[in-house]
């Protein structure tokens, strides 16, 4: 059986990103139910996940409703100890400290730099309150590595729920070109390259119209993550594949990559692949075959 997860717009809902990463980055199947923020869709969706007031909220296969990202992380860790949401040993406490502080803090960064995965700006000058939040982030990130002895990309060794909680922070640093040191920039780059993050962003870039609330007038620059393969939608086939790589259904929408045409069962499947083909292993299996 599969979990259900209620989420908001993928490009903008930072908490939804955290919730989804707790599934996708740890190999747990989930069925998403999406509502557009600042519309009647959201309360209508949440009414089906009572008593939740915000996204994300999950429903377990046995029907238990679990709101709040920290609760979702703990429940999934209890139900799937093999998935590795939390480190083993003393590093587990460090990871939980990080996730708890992220869950409750950094209000200035959230307020002044709302997550927007569709753009990256240049020329933004953060106020002092945001600089204080960034300094605190760099402090606790360095502290975590010292405490756990982590040497790789992530704060407590292997990728953990703590890293999932900081993924939207990495997105904010990338989107607003925020000033952080070299070690923090490397941590941000690791997030932008993470396969699950790339998939979420690819979906977010084509998941509905822009939200005016998140629009800013700063000059834009290229997204600082991995450069995607250049693909584009085309009006017709024939395609190399007869069935959609994701659903297995017959193809009806098409894209071109390197002079080759591939088919998908609907525009969303096509467009998320056009945005970042390498983010999708099932597509890449066809492309490299």
Structure commentary:
- This protein is α+β, with helices and mostly antiparallel strands and 289 residues long.
- It folds into three domains: 3-83, Glutaredoxin (3-Layer(aba) Sandwich), CATH 3.40.30.10; 91-200, Glutathione S-transferase Yfyf (Class Pi), Chain A, domain 2, CATH 1.20.1050; 231-287, no CATH class.
- It has eleven helices and nine strands.
- The strands form three sheets. It has a four-stranded mixed sheet with strand order 2-1-3-4.
- Strand 1, helix 1 and strand 2 form a beta-alpha-beta unit.
- The longest helix has 21 residues, at 128-148.
- The protein starts with a strand and ends with a helix.
- The model has no long low-confidence stretch (mean pLDDT 97).
Helices and strands, with pairings:
Blueprint: E1 3-7, H1 14-24, E2 30-34, H2 41-46, E3 57-59, E4 65-67, H3 69-79, H4 91-104, H5 107-112, E5 120-121, H6 128-148, H7 161-176, H8 182-193, H9 195-204, E6 220-221, E7 231-234, E8 253-257, E9 260-264, H10 267-275, H11 281-287
Parallel strand pairs: 1-2
Antiparallel strand pairs: 1-3, 3-4, 5-6, 7-8, 8-9
Distance between the termini: 31 Å
Shape: globular
Residue runs with pLDDT of under 50 for 5 or more positions: none
Radius of gyration in whole Å, from Cα?
A: 19 Å
Report the β-strand fraction as a percent range: 5-15%
What's the helix count? 11
Strand order of the largest sheet: 2-1-3-4
The number of distinct structural domains comes to 3
Structural class call reads alpha+beta
The profile of the biggest β sheet is:
4 strands, mixed
Mean pLDDT over all positions: 97
User: Any idea of the CATH class of the largest domain?
Assistant: Mainly Alpha
Helix coverage percent of residues?
40-55%
Order of helices and strands: EHEHEEHHHEHHHHEEEEHH
Total DSSP E strands = 9
Q: Examine the coordinates and then state which fold CATH places here, giving the name of the CATH topology of the largest domain.
A: Glutathione S-transferase Yfyf (Class Pi), Chain A, domain 2
Which architecture name of the largest domain does CATH use?
Answer: Up-down Bundle
């Amino acid at each position: 059986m599969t979990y259900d997860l209620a989420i908001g717009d993928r490009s903008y809902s930072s908490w939804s990103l955290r919730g989804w990463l707790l599934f996708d980055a740890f190999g747990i199947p989930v069925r998403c139910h999406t509502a557009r923020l600042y519309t009647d869709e959201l309360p209508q969706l949440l009414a089906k996940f009572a008593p939740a007031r915000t996204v994300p909220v999950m429903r377990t296969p046995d029907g238990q409703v679990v709101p709040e990202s920290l609760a979702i992380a703990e429940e999934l860790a209890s139900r799937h100890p093999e998935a590795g949401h939390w480190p083993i040993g003393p590093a587990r406490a460090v990871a939980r400290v990080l996730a708890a502080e992220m869950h409750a803090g950094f209000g200035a960064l959230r307020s002044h730099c709302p997550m927007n995965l569709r753009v990256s700006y240049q020329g933004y000058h953060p106020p002092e309150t945001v600089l204080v939040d960034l300094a605190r982030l760099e402090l606790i990130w360095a502290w975590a590595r010292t405490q756990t002895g982590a040497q790789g990309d992530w704060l407590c060794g292997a990728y953990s729920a703590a890293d999932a909680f900081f993924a939207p922070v990495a997105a904010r640093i990338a989107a607003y070109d925020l000033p952080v040191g070299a070690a923090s920039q490397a941590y941000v780059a690791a997030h932008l390259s993470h396969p699950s993050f790339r998939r979420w962003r690819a979906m977010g870039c084509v998941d509905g119209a822009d939200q005016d609330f998140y629009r800013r007038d700063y000059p834009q620059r290229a997204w600082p993550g991995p450069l995607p393969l250049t693909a584009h939608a085309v009006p017709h086939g024939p395609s190399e594949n007869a069935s959609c790589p994701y659903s297995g259904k017959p193809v009806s929408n098409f894209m071109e990559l390197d002079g080759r045409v591939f088919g998908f069962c609907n525009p969303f499947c096509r467009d998320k692949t056009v945005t970042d083909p390498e983010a999708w292993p099932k597509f890449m299996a066809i492309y490299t075959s």
